[in-house]
Amino acid sequence: MPQRRAADDAAPTVPELTKLSGPLGIIAGQGPLPRVLAELAIAHGVPVHVVAIRGEAHEEVEGFSHTWIKWGEIGKLFAALESHACKDLVIIGGVNRPDFGNVRLDIGAIKTLPFLLSLAKGGDDHVLSRVVRFFEEKGYHVHGAGDVAPELLAQEGKLTTKAPSAEDASDIEAAFKVVRALGRLDVGQCAVVARGRVLAVEAAEGTDGMLERCAELRKVGRTWGTRPAGVLVKAPKPGQEERVDMPTIGPKTVRLAAAAGLSGIAMAAGHVLMAERDATIKAANESKLFLFGERWDPAAD
Amino acid sequence: MPQRRAADDAAPTVPELTKLSGPLGIIAGQGPLPRVLAELAIAHGVPVHVVAIRGEAHEEVEGFSHTWIKWGEIGKLFAALESHACKDLVIIGGVNRPDFGNVRLDIGAIKTLPFLLSLAKGGDDHVLSRVVRFFEEKGYHVHGAGDVAPELLAQEGKLTTKAPSAEDASDIEAAFKVVRALGRLDVGQCAVVARGRVLAVEAAEGTDGMLERCAELRKVGRTWGTRPAGVLVKAPKPGQEERVDMPTIGPKTVRLAAAAGLSGIAMAAGHVLMAERDATIKAANESKLFLFGERWDPAAD
């Protein structure tokens, strides 16, 4: 699998995109991924319609055929997809869980109330799997961004000038162990290990919040030493719904990792999205961090 | 085991303390535990000498026979223990890992340099086990605070007016799963689960830092809803060196848990230290939090 991804990355082609029967519906949350995916689709002659979640999606999606919806406007969401004949969907970009107390529901939402209430409980993966099932029961095909556009995925091996040291390699191994253990419990997708010690583990705060905490720990001298040490490891939760919750890294991740004094970032090759690959690698080289795609077997333990 | 602890708590006696052959050496880090333990020992006719780590231990230890040492003053440490004939030791109260770059070593420390260097790497448990072995190789007996003074340990069952709800109970169960999984990897001793979702997991930031983060997540609406929900679960790492690294809770833990909007705190009965039991329970009742001692089998998985 990582092999295939690496190959895809080496010679970017987008067979999956061109195979789509009709227009691609993009349900857009935060970050640059919705725009990047829309650009790729159009570049391959696939029309898109972006359904952008207000307060989450970036305004740049207005450069494409789009509809803004608020949390709870489920009716409006499906009307937009239907009127643009989108049967193929990609749900992309992080969202914050809304406070249900502040969500106004439209008619379409009220019709699906039992489903919506079922989202108020449980871990991310539990919730996202339900969302996917919800769309598929309505006859939509939900694709992963990496499936329709494999060149968005981190490839295997060293992506930067700098490579992991022997110390980094053992921290990487330890961090992958932690991430796998956490993933099985639907906790988070990443962890930071420095010189054999687990500095931080991601849960609801997200990767950025976790990295800011590592920078803080370093400031107050809770990490020993000042030279760059430690790695951020990012990988999907085993068996998680990768179509809607694939881990991502970008230039901001790299900047925060550098601010935390880390030595580099290792990712599950083929299972982590890099929307802004060039900018991300450039940022890593400038901060003398390594980016490394670890061969990843989703089934392994 | 929890049974025995519960019994000890019900009728506080300190057989272990009175069994000590000579004076008790207390190597004191942060918090009230060193003082509370010293008071207990003296109340049972056991003389103490406190070796207080500068910048970590509270000044109140100066109320007892004591010696202040700086990080790295290993020679001074052993001189103090010898001159006060302390062969029995309790190492108690958290410490921050020093930045080795800023530690001045005395002669005694330089003699033990290979040992000290071995501490610069690895997880907490790895490090603390080495510390214990280090003292025992020198002929000292290292005791857990809970072994010499069982009334310091959290007892089994409900400690507050409020009891866990059914929802709390399932969050408690989920959180214990997470803590056990993390403990096996020497990550941390506690986690917060709210309505089935893991909000936060402790690593190097410590319990207080983790709870402050939960309060932050709640403020920014990352936790859904505003009514108190979620539990803090605290338990030792499976197989950890409990003599020097037993989890603790106190009034501050309760205040931070309340600020994070949690419903209560569950602990591994007999394996969590409550230095200020009455103040802790009082704080919990005032904030309408529950404190619950879960029966804990260190061997279980």
UniProtKB/TrEMBL annotation, chains A, B:
Residues 155-291 form the LpxI C-terminal domain. It comes from the Bacteria. This is UDP-2,3-diacylglucosamine pyrophosphatase. Pfam families: LpxI_C, LpxI_N. Residues 24-152 form the LpxI N-terminal domain. InterPro entries: LpxI (IPR053174), LpxI_C (IPR010415), LpxI_C_sf (IPR043167), LpxI_N (IPR041255).
